[in-house]
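About this split. The held-out portion is used to measure sequence recovery: a designer receives only the structure tokens and must propose an amino acid at every position. Recovery is the fraction of positions where the proposal matches the reference. Here is one held-out target exactly as it appears in the evaluation file.
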């Protein structure tokens, strides 16, 4: 039932809307498919690009931090196990002479300066004495209340402890640094060498280099997976809490509204980068906005082109519709404007040509009907009231019979029959047989009337007697032969034969007619009125043939002075009186 409703709805959609809809669908489907493929491809590219960039940066930071810590380990080994430094520390501890102590201190500072100069990535460096919580031989001014025990431990190993990241204890450095403390190999007391990284050594790890890294938050995990440093203590606190995914082998994932990536060093500690999801997707969202704008522009372009295409097709159809509507009104002037589309202009030209031909045919039919009506009026002009005339002739007929006037009786009877034929059935059509009988009655009247003898020979093919023909086609032609030249010993031959058409020939041996007489015969109505016969005339025959048969009938007259006249007609074959 729903399908039928949809089909009915579709059938009610106009052609214009269908064109626009089909064009839009045909254009949007490939574009949508291309858009989906592009979206998937670019989304994958952007995702891989962002992930690759993050992982690559994180690997670099992990390698950089490993190098920093390895450098701290190496320098601390130099100071903790250096024979000369340890010897000087022991001498300084036991020496009582102030001068010698001063000399030993200067020698020890000189050795420490050499180490500092040879390791530019090293910052603050000093010896720390845990028993008294004091320090000595620092190469930079130290902040007040310095105490190693207050520093955040990153990881502890049997011989060394790493701290950080924390604010440098160097008064002139406020950057985050990593530091280490290693026990010095001396026997007289417990001494540790404390070393920090330089001011710019780890700056790239904490300082953002781009927009994405600016939103990055850093975590440093110790070997146990506990958070040693956090830039987001609200979500990842430091106080002994572990990273939620530290036990998993995965190197990336999502947590809350963040995405994290992890790199684990060879020493066991890990560095984790945390990014807000909205920042990770920022570039992707920008691309989504751009592709959406592109889709909108393309959609507007498709709809505009669809409308133009619809106008290009629908306007010519609308023009054709107006031309067809104008067929019913001949007063509307035919337009000559063009659509400037060759195919449509050709069809429009043919439509206008067809319209002109239709109205020409209509005018021709209208003229024929008018001529036919004129013929009817013309026939009525020559008619007397039939009842009065026929009753009068019937009275004359009985009077002649009662008085023994056989010639008058025969004359009146023939005239009565001829008039009955003329007025019978109130129509125009008869048959060849009926027309021959009427012609014989007419000739009977003319033989009594004329004072000369003439012969009329009528040859009719039997199959032609039942063919339909308009009334009074033969009589005017025979009357013309009698009127123009037939005298004593005159001869008129009427021949009617049936072939593919009905062929009628009327030939006489009269005096003939000139070309001028022939022209007057067809165009001068006064000659018909001057005749003393039926008064129908040759012009009537031509008009009645043209009215009934049009171009299908042919009519020819051949006449020579002193030799006679021959009239020939060729008519379509129509059977029965009612067929015309």
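Reference sequence for scoring:
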């Amino acid at each position: 039932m729903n399908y039928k409703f949809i089909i009915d709805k579709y059938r009610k959609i106009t052609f214009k809307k269908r064109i626009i809809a089909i064009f839009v669908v045909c254009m949007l489907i490939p574009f949508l498919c291309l858009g989906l493929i592009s979206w998937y491809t670019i989304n994958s590219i952007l995702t891989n690009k962002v992930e690759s960039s993050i992982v690559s940066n994180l690997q670099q930071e992990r390698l950089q931090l490993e190098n920093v810590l390895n450098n701290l380990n190496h320098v601390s080994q130099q100071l903790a196990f250096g024979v000369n430094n340890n010897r000087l520390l022991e001498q300084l501890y036991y020496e009582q002479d102030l001068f010698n102590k001063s000399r030993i201190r200067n020698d020890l500072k000189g050795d420490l300066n050499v180490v500092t100069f040879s390791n530019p990535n090293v910052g603050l460096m000093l010896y720390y004495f845990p028993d008294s919580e004091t320090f000595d031989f620092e190469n930079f001014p130290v902040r007040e209340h310095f105490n190693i025990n207050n520093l955040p431990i990153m990881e502890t190993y049997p011989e060394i402890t790493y701290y950080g990241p924390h604010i440098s204890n160097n008064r002139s450095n406020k950057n985050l640094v990593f530091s280490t403390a290693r026990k010095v190999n001396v026997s007289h007391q417990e001494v540790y060498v404390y070393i920090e990284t330089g001011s710019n050594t780890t700056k790239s790890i904490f300082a953002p280099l781009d927009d994405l890294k600016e939103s990055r938050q850093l975590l440093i995990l110790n070997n146990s997976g506990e958070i040693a440093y956090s830039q987001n203590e609200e979500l990842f606190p430091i106080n002994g809490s572990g990273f939620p995914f530290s036990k998993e082998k995965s190197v990336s994932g999502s947590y809350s509204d963040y995405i994290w990536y992890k790199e684990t060093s060879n020493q066991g500690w890990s560095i984790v980068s945390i990014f807000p999801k909205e920042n990770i997707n920022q570039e992707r969202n920008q691309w989504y906005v751009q592709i959406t704008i592109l889709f909108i522009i393309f959609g507007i372009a498709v709809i505009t082109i669809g409308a133009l295409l619809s106008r290009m097709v629908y306007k010519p159809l609308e023009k054709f519709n107006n031309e067809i509507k104008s067929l019913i009104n001949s007063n509307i002037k035919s337009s000559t404007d063009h659509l400037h589309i060759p195919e449509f202009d050709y069809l429009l030209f043919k439509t206008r040509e067809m319209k002109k031909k239709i109205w020409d045919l209509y005018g021709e039919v209208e003229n024929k009907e008018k001529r036919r009506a004129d013929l009817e009026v013309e026939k009525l002009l020559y008619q007397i009231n039939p009842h009065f005339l026929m009753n009068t002739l019937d009275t004359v007929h009985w009077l002649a019979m009662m008085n023994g006037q056989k010639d008058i009786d025969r004359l009146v009877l023939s005239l009565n029959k001829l008039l009955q034929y003329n007025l019978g059935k109130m129509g125009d059509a008869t048959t060849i047989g009926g027309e021959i009988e009427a012609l014989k009655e007419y000739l009977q009247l003319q033989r009594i009337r004329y004072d000369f003898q003439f012969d009329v020979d009528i040859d009719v093919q039997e199959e032609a007697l039942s063919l339909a023909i308009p009334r009074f086609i033969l009589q005017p032609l025979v009357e013309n032969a009698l009127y123009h030249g037939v005298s004593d010993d005159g001869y008129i031959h009427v021949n009617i034969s049936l072939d593919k058409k009905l062929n009628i020939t009327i030939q006489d041996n009269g005096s003939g007619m000139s070309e001028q007489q022939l022209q007057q015969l067809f165009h001068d109505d006064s000659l018909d009125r001057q005749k003393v016969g039926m008064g129908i005339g040759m012009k009537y025959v031509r008009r009645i043939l043209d009215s009934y048969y049009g171009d299908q009938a042919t009519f020819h007259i051949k006449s020579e002075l002193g030799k006679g006249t021959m009239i020939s007609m060729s008519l379509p074959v129509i059977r029965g009186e009612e067929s015309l």
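Annotator remark: The radius of gyration is 65 Å.
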